[in-house]
Amino acid sequence: xxxxxAGSSANVIPxxxxxxxxxxxxxxxxxxxxxxxxxxxxNPSLDHEPQLxxxxxxxxGAFDYSFxxxxxxxxxxxAANGRPYAEMKSDEIRIGATYASVTPYxxxxxxxALVFYSQNFEGPIGSEWSTASTxxxxxGKRRFLGEFGNxxxxxxxxxVPAHTLxxxxxxxxxxxxxxxxxxxxxxDIFQLTNSDGAQLFxxxxxxxxxxxxxxxxxxxxxGQSFPGTFTxxxxxxxxxxxxxxxxxxxxxxxxxxxxxTVPMPQDSVYHLSRVLIHTNGTxxxxxxxxxxxxxxxxxxxxDNVQVELFNPGPLLGLSVLPFPSLLPGNPVxxxxxxxxVDRRVSGLGxxxxxxxxxxx
Length: 360
Ligand SMILES: [Ca+2]
Ligand SMILES: [Ca+2]
Ligand SMILES: [Ca+2]
Description:
The chain is mainly beta. Helices cover about 5% and strands about 35% of the residues. It has 2 domains: about 1-105 and about 315-355, no CATH class; about 110-310, Sandwich (Jelly Rolls), CATH 2.60.120.
């Protein structure tokens, strides 16, 4: 998948993603004096506006993205066989000034959810999990999947009924001395991806406990990326330790900081949720930790995992939502709706390529 500024294949800005399934593509254009910035997102989470650093491809200050027409295209013409190299069906094209106005889902609008899977790890654990290793919290005696360190735990759900959206909800247990964005004893990263390539979470957590030892003050100051996304040490967002936690120091885990003798309480629980475009009958979710110290230093677990399915409406009925008369910063007035979208398969482009081009 790629963006093709100015409609020229010579300008193609590719991503590493290919697709043969239903895919949500979001293009963000920041109109500026002179050339503009454009970002291409593939299957971003629907209930969470992605950070610019999450873009699968971007074009910064290199082209003028003023536009009055969108032309999705895929493949070229296979003259030898008298057919296109590939085909694409567009379900819906939305143009708006905010992320929420162009994504086809809002949490409040999901009235037809089906709870397809639910697991609290208090009873038997099926083969859908790549491990059945559980632990019980010292306080509260909650049984959860864990403890884990630098490893990937997969949830594999099969025979999933027809759906177009899925929401995964779970409790993430950050146990002991998670160091967030720390560049010396971290970054301590948690990630969740699905098999269709969507990155649902990639973030860091920090269980910093106030200490008089200045050696630990820096780790606290490094903060954590959550509720944002960790990209790199130099660009990570910095939130205070345990920002967004539903529970703090409620599970009874402790850690003795180096140079001290008294165990300090260090644990937190986050209620996490993501919505993804998904239609396959198999749903694979990979939960993973990386950059972590030993399990005795910091570990993680999962509890109360739930997967809901949604069918927000029939697919493959193209609709174009009301078009703003003039997008913020776009100097080109848009024309009538039926002029905006051109569904022809273009002869421009390589096999399997999807582009959104500017023509005016
Ligand atoms: Ca439990
Ligand atoms: Ca640590
Ligand atoms: Ca660490």
